[in-house]
Write a structure and sequence with these properties.
The complex is a heterodimer.
Chain A: E1 13-19, E2 22-28, H1 30-35, H2 46-56, H3 61-64, H4 75-81, H5 89-92, H6 94-105, E3 118-119, H7 122-140, H8 144-160
Antiparallel strand pairs in A: 1-2
Chain B: H1 3-8, E1 24-33, H2 46-63, E2 70-73, H3 79-87, H4 93-97, E3 103-106, E4 112-116, E5 122-129, H5 133-148, E6 153-156, E7 160-161, E8 173-180, H6 182-186, H7 190-198, E9 202-206, E10 218-223, H8 231-259, H9 261-277, H10 283-298, H11 307-316, H12 319-326, H13 332-346
Antiparallel strand pairs in B: 1-5, 1-8, 2-3, 3-4, 4-5, 6-7, 8-10, 9-10
Helix pairs in contact in B: 2-5, 3-12, 9-10, 10-11, 12-13
The chains are: A mainly alpha, B alpha+beta.
């Protein structure tokens, strides 16, 4: 839609005015809106942008029902909350997230700082998460010997880390 | 250091003396990090969250000098204390309002804060007064290295540091600069700045209040993209834009003084008169008047007023601080009276 004032630029500001009980809709471009003294909301909230983006992202039913086997979050849940459940989600939702990353960052690959040692081995990290769940189970069902064994294993894996 | 002492001492990030301190209040560099092998916060069971907080507290204090850092637990902290920490930018709204075990390590001079169990497992932030992007980054980078000696971060070679929200993934870096832009607001040029800035993947928000004219004319500009650029590139883009905005604000200030000196003086002196004599004053009005007085001092049109006191009042007149200093919970109208009293006391017109 073109701006109703200058008839040149795209109208991006849509106003509904009520004057003497009469409703009037106006569609203006940013420049004309400013000239008419319409304040444009300048508060930019990243979370809003992301939610808006996720809403706008035409996710197919297939994407929405994607579910992480580790933390149990679905893509639909992520879309409504704007937060992921665990690091593995970046792999499970890799395809639909690609577009989100592209829009937010204009890029999809990291080129910055590298950690000295990091849990970049995603299999190892998933294993740790599973071990923690097993530990919780063991404690809840009062299998303390097994719990101690799992705890030591977690400790070993956690302190060993991975050296780059 | 005790919380009461932190809350009643001047906040270093508002101290004048940093580069471009007539326009830039402070610089902040924040890094988001998560511990490998654990779910993010929103999928972390309560007992694991508790365990993680204890683990992070130990790791953070081991990484830093424990005698210089104080750990505060948020879960049982009174609401007014949490509010004060938010007002001091030592913790985020999210950490203040969060659930379960979570904490913050506050470093020397309140310039460094390391939050545990915020949106990400670790959020580390460094403040510098004035425009000091490189200095703040180098310090944050060094702290990050020290933390990493204690904690293994979750990291993907392709996506970098993995974060709970994909808006922070990659470097996990958010650099922000807090600017006082009264002349760009008065001359109605602030919108232009915002439009230019948002095209560069930078985000703008008012520090206080909402909407176009941020109360107190204090704006925060930060990088939006954290992935696909090196830390240095991110800082450089932000730094270049900030330098440009500083130049625009300076021009606008000079233009105001040259073109309408009487109207300008009238505004500055009226603001000063109200601040020094009001008996009841809201937080919004205070910020607007402080903004004008701050401008007047930097234009050398208001003499004999200490800039440090004015900067400090931006913080000490906030809702939480007013109540903390009174040592009581106050309703809005009581706060407005207490605030006016406090301002007159600080400005010597009691």
């Amino acid at each position: 839609m073109l701006c109703q004032r200058c008839h040149k630029q795209q109208a991006t500001i849509h106003l509904t005015e009520i004057l003497n009980d009469e409703k009037r809709e106006r569609h203006l471009c940013e420049d004309c809106a400013r000239e008419e003294g319409v304040a444009i909301k300048a508060q930019i909230n990243l979370q809003d942008i992301l939610s808006g983006m996720l809403e706008a992202h035409e996710s197919t039913g297939r994407d929405a029902s994607l579910c992480c086997p580790d933390c149990g979050i679905t893509y639909a849940e992520f879309r409504s909350q704007g937060r992921l459940g665990c690091p593995h989600d970046y792999e499970v939702f890799a395809e639909p997230l690609q577009e989100v990353l592209e829009k937010v960052h204009g890029a999809t690959e990291h080129v910055g700082k590298l950690p000295q040692r990091a849990g970049s081995d995603s299999r190892g990290q998933r294993e740790l998460m599973q071990l923690r769940r097993q530990l919780q189970d063991a404690v809840e069902t009062e299998r303390y010997e097994e719990a101690a064994r799992i705890r030591d294993l977690i400790h070993k894996k956690e302190t060993a880390g991975e050296t780059r | 250091m005790k919380l009461d002492k932190i809350i009643t001492s001047p906040s270093p990030w508002l101290e004048p003396g940093g580069p471009h301190d007539d326009i830039v209040l402070s610089t902040r560099v924040r890094l988001a990090r998560n511990v490998a092998g654990r779910p993010f916060l929103n999928r972390l069971p309560p007992d694991e969250q508790q365990e993680l907080e204890a683990y992070l507290k130990k790791a953070v204090l081991a990484a830093m000098k424990p005698d210089k850092y104080t750990w505060f637990e948020l879960e049982d902290m009174p609401q007014v204390d949490r509010q004060c920490l938010v007002e001091r930018h030592l913790i985020s709204h999210e950490l203040a309002a969060g659930k379960g075990e979570r904490g913050v390590a506050v470093g020397p001079k309140q310039r460094i804060a390391i939050m545990a169990n915020e949106e990400d497992h670790l959020r580390l932030q460094v403040y510098s007064s004035g425009l000091q992007l490189q200095e703040a980054w180098q310090e944050a980078d060094a702290i990050d290295d020290r933390l990493e000696a204690q904690v293994i971060y979750t990291f993907s070679p392709k996506l970098g540091y993995l974060t709970a929200c994909p808006t922070n993934v990659g470097t996990g870096l958010r650099a922000s600069v807090m600017l006082h832009l009264p002349a760009l607001v008065l001359t109605r040029q602030i919108e232009k700045v915002f439009n230019a800035v948002s095209r560069l993947r930078l985000a703008v928000r008012g520090l206080y209040g909402e909407g176009t004219q941020a109360t107190g004319d204090v704006y925060q500009i930060s990088n939006q993209a954290s992935l696909g650029h090196t830390e240095q590139e991110i800082l450089k883009t932000l730094g270049t834009v900030i330098s440009q905005i500083i130049a625009y604000e300076k021009e606008a200030r000079d233009a105001l003084a040259a073109e309408s000196p009487t109207a300008l003086d009238d505004r500055l002196l009226r603001s000063w008169a109200i601040l020094t004599h009001a008996r009841v004053i809201s937080s919004e009005e205070t910020l607007a008047l402080l903004s004008a007085v701050r401008l007047g001092i930097h234009l050398k049109r208001l003499k004999g007023v200490d800039i440090g006191t004015i900067n400090d009042l931006f913080l000490m007149t906030r809702r939480g601080h007013i109540q903390k200093m009174r040592g009581a919970e106050l309703g809005e109208s009581e706060r407005d009276v207490a605030r006016a009293d406090y301002i007159r006391k600080r400005l010597g017109t009691n």
